[in-house]
Specification:
alpha/beta; Rossmann fold; five-stranded parallel β-sheet
């Protein structure tokens, strides 16, 4: 990716300022005229799709949106499209709903910004509670404004991985689907893509980005929503259709979704830059098996405290 010329930088700055002003006006508008007037009135329980960049969140969101209980709250792009570098553009995303949570400008190229889950950047995205009742109402009203039915809203944004506490405090009965791509497949994909985009990374750092994001997300899900989440292994979507349908129904019934016959035509290795190569199974216990003992020990310790 070519670095922006001075004039391009000015346009970029102007665009950011314009976007911030628009967001401010939008916040004020929905704070005053929103559907909900009190936090106690919020009666929606969204299903949030979680996962790091390049982990299959677009794919699983596309599949889930078929379900008769769900309404996908997505932007304009709802089908996979190839970029010039042969990587798929994100689709079925909900970044527009709470756009003030999104990074602006040339953030991916600046100071390894693409590694937003790395310790150097993670504090910019992490939230475990709303600032006040007004923010809770703002989040609920903005989401409500995009709903066209009374179905469960389906929301897909990577950055919600680091906002589990916040989301549960606004939507107490929210459900979550976390999709994880095995570290080998993930690192191959990211390193190849970002190198082509001239994103300078002091390797090895992608692995820490992957580990921090997923371990933090799993820990927070077990803490804040222990009965309301399920975890999917990205690689299991590429089995035969009958096996995948059975797997999805088995996993998703734990968060209240009825049995459904998913059209899996969109699941195709040709949409992967790496094709059928390097689809590796998630080694969950090796990387995240320590989370339950950590939570259990601290709960016992603090429960026994005077």
């Amino acid at each position: 990716m070519v670095k922006p010329a001075p004039m391009s930088k000015l346009r970029l700055l102007a665009s950011i300022v314009k976007q911030r002003v628009f967001q401010k006006i939008r916040k004020i508008n929905y704070g005053i005229y929103g559907y909900y007037k009190r936090v106690e009135d919020v009666d929606i329980s969204p299903l949030f799709v979680l996962g790091s960049n390049r982990s299959g969140t677009s794919l699983i969101s596309s599949l889930l949106a078929q379900h008769h209980q769900l309404e996908g709250i997505f932007g304009k792009s709802n089908t996979p499209k190839l970029k010039i570098d042969n990587h798929i553009l994100a689709y079925c995303t909900s970044h527009h709903v709470w756009d003030f949570f999104n990074p602006l400008g040339n953030w991916g190229q600046k100071d390894e910004g693409a590694l937003w889950g790395h310790p150097k950047h993670i504090s910019r995205y992490y939230r475990d509670k709303p600032i006040d009742k007004q923010e809770s109402l703002l989040l609920a009203n903005l989401l409500r404004s995009y709903m066209k039915t009374e179905k469960t809203p389906l929301v897909n944004s990577h950055f919600n991985m680091l906002k589990i506490g916040l989301l549960v405090k606004v939507f107490p009965n929210a459900k979550f689907v976390l999709i994880i791509r095995d570290y080998q497949d993930y690192i191959r994909s990211c390193s190849q893509k970002w190198t082509k985009q001239d994103i300078d990374i002091e390797f090895p750092k992608i692995g820490l980005h992957w580990l921090t994001l997923n371990s933090c997300c799993i820990y927070e899900l077990k803490k804040y929503a222990p009965e309301n989440f399920t975890i999917l292994d990205y690689s299991t979507l590429f089995h035969d259709h009958k096996t995948v349908n059975n797997m999805l129904n088995e996993k998703l019934k734990t968060i209240g979704l009825e049995e459904f016959d998913y059209d899996l035509g969109i699941v195709n290795a040709k949409h992967r830059y790496l094709g059928e190569e390097h689809i590796t199974y998630l080694q969950y216990e090796d990387f995240f098996g320590c989370i339950d003992p950590l939570l259990s020990f601290e709960r016992i310790l603090t429960d026994d405290s005077p």
